[in-house]
Design goal:
Blueprint (H helix, E strand, L loop, with lengths): L1 H19 L5 H22 L10 H23 L5 H17 L11 H4 L3 H13 L6 H12 L1
Helix pairs in contact: 1-6, 2-6, 3-7, 4-6
Length: 152
Amino acid sequence: MRAAVAFGVAIEVVTELLSLLHAITPGVLTATWVMLVLLAALACWLRRPVPHFGAFTCRRAGALLPFVVLASLALVVALAAPPNTWDAINYHLEPVLQWAQNGDVAFYPANVQRQLFLSPWAEYAILHFQVLSGTDRSANLVQWFAYGGCIL
């Protein structure tokens, strides 16, 4: 849970800070995330104690198998299919494309008002995935990670 909250805060802070500098670009985002991952690895290494989760038996592993299978199938679909739902095309991906093109998350002229006033965190995460991967096929990964978090 701490990792999910830290990731969410990192998405928000990185997006807002880079937006102030008009620096939401593949190079800057890559450097920023490499730095954040290295800092997280250093923090984990300094903490060192490995948490004990109890005996992990074959019976417990078998109970997880259906969830692993479902999550794996959902991952294949998320990676294979581009976003194609009405709401994704109409007002989730449009801001992402505008922000990636402009290098910031400032307001822009839009006919669909939902693009401007809905809470943008999911779109910020999609922005990071899309700018780093260069394609919108990674947009589904935001929902997949949320799905995996719900399973956990």
